[in-house]
Amino acid sequence: MHGFTRRGVLQGCACVAAAGLVGGCVTTNRATGDTSFTGLMSIQDDIELGRREHPKLVKQFGGEYENPRLQSYVDRLGRRAAEYAEYQEFPYRFTIVNSPIINAFALPGGYVYVSRGLLSFASNEAELMGVISHEIGHVNARHTAERLSTAQLAQGLLLLGTVATGSRELADMGGGIAGLVLQSFSREQEFEADTLGIRYMARAGYDPDAMASFLATLREYSQVHAQILGRDPSSVDETNLMATHPRTIDRVQRARAEAVGAAPGATLVNRDPFLSQIDGMLYGDDPAQGVIDGELFKHPDLRLCFRAPETFTLLNSPDQVTGFSPDREATILFDGARVPEGRSMAAYLQEDWSGPQIALSDLEPITVNGMEAATGWARLLSREGPVDLRGVAIRFEGERVYRFRFITKPSATDRYSEPLRRTTYSFRKLTPEEAAAIRPHRLIVVPIQPGDSIAGLSRSMPHGQYNEAMFRVLNDMAGDRPLPNSGLIKTIVS
Questions:
Q1: Scanning 70, 90, 195, 320, which has its CA 20 to 30 A from the CA of 343?
Q2: Would you say 395 and 337 are in contact if contact means Cβ atoms under 8 Å apart?
């Protein structure tokens, strides 16, 4: 078996058998002092699961951010906080993932992750320490282990005969660990992680109020980001830390009151040292994964681009580009595939991609900027009701094929038909010169000069009409706070 120790599994099964599958096997957590249903996973199981799933989770979030100096800095902070954790047997590891999404998460066994996007919006070392310490809190409270043990029981994987026959079902449960890690935790679990995180950061000397101040920044970011996406500003971006870690400032303050007594003199903030570390860091999309410029998607390495309809919002991930209309009645999904040369795009579209269960209507070959392509459509039943799906497959060169899926509500199909058709025919190859001209955005830290203004300092940022609003979020300048007369400030350049 791999991923879980056989001994741990046998112990878990014995517990379940003894309890008659009611109540399960509980253990006392040394960090929280509470009992929890984690008896199906030993500490060694936590470690092995984290070690196995680490490369998968890193890949899912764009790989490691290749900045040795910054990585060493984050690792140093993490280890400083982990010195005060209750489970010292965990091999703590701290990784920056190359994602612009503002998020942080942890795997069992001490594997903690912060995104490049999160580092951009932290204001000081204490805020970053608060995030890292909160994740160490989840690890030591063994929240994911508890969730996984419950899932194992629910799926009926704990029969004694399973182990007796050497089944690998239990080990294979780890395949879904990423989903469990990225689900939002309960309010009680978040409060426990806050309480433990504040305990660790305060004992390391850091001002625990920074945990609440970063939540305030995240709230402001979510409001501005919602406006950019055409949503209600009170909504929360489902991809950021506020969604995966649903917490309130009041609850963090309550955790602070309970946890900080052991270190009343914790006052470290360290703003300037933190800013010096993130100066020059990549901001937003990594060109190696493609960049979004308004409605235009460009990938310099793959040498391709396309333009979404006006007012559509594009989001980039390692696996696909997603676009959606302001009214959410039209969606674009763009990705790639390998298709043997000689296979027609029409045959691939109907037989391979759509499959025999979907009969495409009006299937026809087309040409897109000199490239062989095909398109067809079908009406399908989704969880939200009927939708119209139009597929487009384009042979880029050799075996490289790129695909569009245009999904519209039937009542909106006619309205979006022409704009989406223009998106299909906007797909083209970039020239070497065009690809070379694509530059990444970078966060820079500059001293405030006499005569500087928010409008001037934010002019080169990539958020258009929201540049000033995002500049305020980036620099923790909520409301109408004026630009300071001196000091360091963050901005974005390309």
A1: 320
A2: no
Q: Which residues contact 484 (CB under 8 A, 6 or more apart)?
A: 448
**What is the C-alpha separation between 375 and 390, in angstroms, rounded?**
7
pTM of the predicted model over 0.85: no
The closest of 422, 363, 425, 427 to 389, measured between CA atoms, is: 363
Scan for tokens 């006006």, then name that residue. Answer: 310
Number of C-beta neighbours around residue 474 at 10 A: 24
Residue 324, token pair as written in the block: 């959606």
What residues have CB less than 8 Å from 156, skipping those under 6 apart? Answer: none
Which helix (H) or strand (E) segment holds residue 321: the answer is strand 321-324
* CA–CA gap between residue 68 and residue 76 (Å, rounded): 12
Listed in sequence order, the DSSP H helices in 37-111 are 43-60, 68-82
Whose CA is closest to 23, among 33, 32, 13, 15?
Answer: 15
Angle between the 125-141 and 187-203 helix axes, to the nearest 10 degrees? 120
Per-position pLDDT tens, the chain of length 494: 333 333 343 343 334 333 444 444 677 878 777 776 555 678 999 999 999 999 988 988 889 999 999 999 999 999 999 999 999 999 999 999 998 889 899 999 999 999 999 999 999 999 999 999 999 999 999 988 777 765 554 444 333 333 333 333 333 333 456 666 666 778 888 889 989 999 999 999 999 989 888 988 988 898 888 887 666 666 555 556 656 666 677 777 776 777 666 567 889 999 999 999 999 999 998 998 898 877 899 999 999 999 999 888 787 877 889 898 988 899 999 999 999 999 999 999 998 887 778 889 999 999 999 999 999 999 998 888 899 999 999 999 999 999 999 999 999 999 999 999 999 999 999 999 999 999 889 999 999 999 999 999 999 998 888 899 999 999 999 888 999 999 999 999 98
The letter for the amino acid at 154 is A
> What is residue 279's DSSP assignment?
T
Neighbouring-strand partners of residue 361: 377
State how far the Cα of 320 lies from the Cα of 312, in Å rounded to an integer.
16
3-state helix, strand, coil in the chain (%, to 5): 45, 20, 35
Q: Distance of alpha carbon 72 from its chain centroid, rounded?
A: 22
Residue 296 has what DSSP assignment?
E
Q: What is the C-alpha separation between 96 and 57, in angstroms, rounded? A: 12
